[in-house]
Structure formats: structure tokens, C-alpha cells
Amino acid sequence: LLIVMNTVGPQILTALSVPLIALWKKQPQQSGILSSVMVCAATFILYHTVVAASAAACAGWLRSHLMLHKVFSPRFMLGGVVLLVIDVITLI
After folding, report:
1. Per-residue pLDDT tens digits for 33-53
2. Is residue 59 within 8 Å of 17, Cβ to Cβ?
């Protein structure tokens, strides 16, 4: 449990803080608050999707490279795990 929290803990904290960042300095009676939170969450998920997709593209492009299993594959696997955690936490 400690290793998992050490690995994805910062991503969980940032995913939980996305609505707080979207609501920063907003008036409670202001219209469109939910839409601004959803846009901020979608942007956050899109960023991590691009990171995971670029890691997959680099791993696919450099599949015959000697450092594939030392550098690119762990980044690809961690990018996928982080993307799943971010999606679950942000959608909750």
C-alpha cells in the first residue's frame, strides 16, 4: 500500500485539487461553475492522455532500441497506470 501511494499519490492529490483550482476566486452565485470545473477536469485528463500516448508512441517507435526495457517501457506502463488513476479519481 505504501509503494502504491508513493507511486500515484501526487497524481491523486493533483486530481483532487482540480475542482479547487477551477473554483478559485469564483463567486458562489455565479453561473457556469459546473461547466468551468468540467472544462478544467477535461483539460487535466487530456494532458495525461497526451503524455501516455506519447510514451506509447516512443516505445513503439524505438522498439528495437537497446534501452527500450530500461527507459521507455517503464514510462509507458507508468503512464497507463497514472492515466487510469487520474480518470477514476477525477470522475469521482
Report:
1. 999 999 999 999 999 999 999
2. no
| SS3 label, residue 35 | helix
The dihedral through the CA atoms of 32, 14, 53, 2 has a sign that is: negative
d(CA 60, CA 56): 6
Residue 59 in contact with residue 76, Cβ under 8 Å? yes
Residue 84 backbone dihedrals phi, psi, to 5 degrees: -65, -45
Q: What are phi and psi of 40, to 5 degrees?
A: -65, -40
Decide if 80 contacts 57 (C-beta within 8 A): no
End-to-end CA gap in the chain: 21
Examine the pLDDT at 55 and tell me if it is beyond 90: no
